[in-house]
Amino acid sequence: MAQLLEGAHNLGWVLLNSFLRFIFVFINNCVAIPSYCLYCILLQPLRIMDSHTFWLIEGIMFKWMLAMVSQWGWVAGYTVMEWGDDVRPLSEEEAMVIVNHQATGDVCTLMMCLQDKGTVVRKMMWLMDHVFKYTNFGLVSLIHGDFFIRQGKAYRDKQLIYLKDHLDRYYHSRDRKWIVLFPEGGFLRKRRETSQAFAKKNSLPHLTHVTLPRLGATQVILKTLGPQQENGCLGTEASTVHPSQSGSKPKGLQWVVDVTIAYSKARPMDIQTWIFGYRPPTVTHVHYRVYPIKEVPVETKPLTDWLYQRFVEKEDLLAHFYETGLCSRHCFFRFLSLTLSGLYLSLSLSLSGNSLSLPLW
Questions:
Q1: DSSP string covering 37-64, please?
Q2: Is the pLDDT of residue 330 over 60?
Q3: Please, how many CA atoms are within 13 Å of residue 354, restricted to the half-sphere of its CB?
Q4: Phi and psi at residue 259, in whole multiples of 5°?
């Protein structure tokens, strides 16, 4: 009887906590998102006169928005441990970020762990499924200039054309530095069976913790944003002048940052977990590996082999983590600090900005 009462008490507390968190997140969205949109509307004259300054201010507000999403998980005890290469020195250089995709919580995890990476969050572009356009955060991403891509064979060719056009129009004109994509093209649980069948048919590696990546978007990004090609690979010779200066050319992509997200006990977190906080506090592990752009091929066959090799390495890394609890045998690691990540400052400034915008509604 005592155990039954204790179980009922714990369940009641979880339900109450989830309800209160939902109310907080709902109010958070009702205030923060309209405030962001309102400020962007009021700053349109500045966009006409000085677009560089406008996108600088917009980027700061965008970082605040992502910080508010990050704190939903942080206050529930969802923290991050980082492993591998230190990517902070690359924050001011152009990079393509490839990430394994397990659940909607992957995006929230990236929002959290990139907060302390200089201006990365302010100047990054996301590639995400088109359904995210219709979520509460979709309007913010639309204004920021993220790209929403449709999945499926019926849309594939046109979407790649749209992606190239989007990059040509918005990437350098808005001074973007990092571009984030999920080459698997969908969640692990949805694509695993299809990927394994394809691998078996084509004598490719059998993967369990990741799926075989798709080539299209990655190749378009490399060809559109990469520096001049040299012998089938991307070169590194380019102008060092800031792209916002008249008549200058951007350096182009300089790095590929390979990010592997590993969840405790192989249990991915979705956005509902971040909102309601019903899962006990847990640590998500994020591993970074950096490749100079000159090592990355752009032609179809070599690039396919290169991408497959990266995801085979992810498979080995995740298998090692689930077996030992360690992401790598020999690399640095650190817990993400709430203070060092800038979440305190971003949240304080975001709340102040939201408060100032309320009288304007």
A1: HHHHHHTHHHHHH-HHHHHHHHHHHHHH
A2: no
A3: 18
A4: -110, 130
**Dist. CA 303–CA 297, nearest whole Å:** 5
Task: Specify the pairing of strand 282-292 against strand 255-262.
Answer: antiparallel
pLDDT digits (tens, 9 = 90+) for 272-315: 999 999 999 999 999 999 999 999 999 999 999 999 999 999 99
Q: How far apart are CA 165 and CA 126, in angstroms?
A: 15
Q: What is the pLDDT of residue 131?
A: 81
First-to-last CA distance in the chain?
54
Which ranges of the chain does DSSP label H, i.e. alpha helix? Answer: 2-42, 44-49, 51-74, 105-113, 138-144, 153-166, 188-201, 216-225, 271-276, 300-324, 343-357
For residue range 19-42, what is the model confidence (pLDDT) as tens digits?
A: 999 999 999 999 999 999 999 999
The answer to whether the beta carbons of residues 105 and 111 sit under 8 Å apart is no
Judge whether 326 and 81 are in contact, CB under 8 Å: no
Beta-bridged to residue 149, according to DSSP, are 129
User: Residues, the chain, total?
Assistant: 361
* Alpha carbon distance 25, 173 (integer Å): 33
Q: What is the pLDDT of residues 131-170, one digit of tens each?
A: 888 887 889 999 999 999 987 777 888 999 999 999 999 9
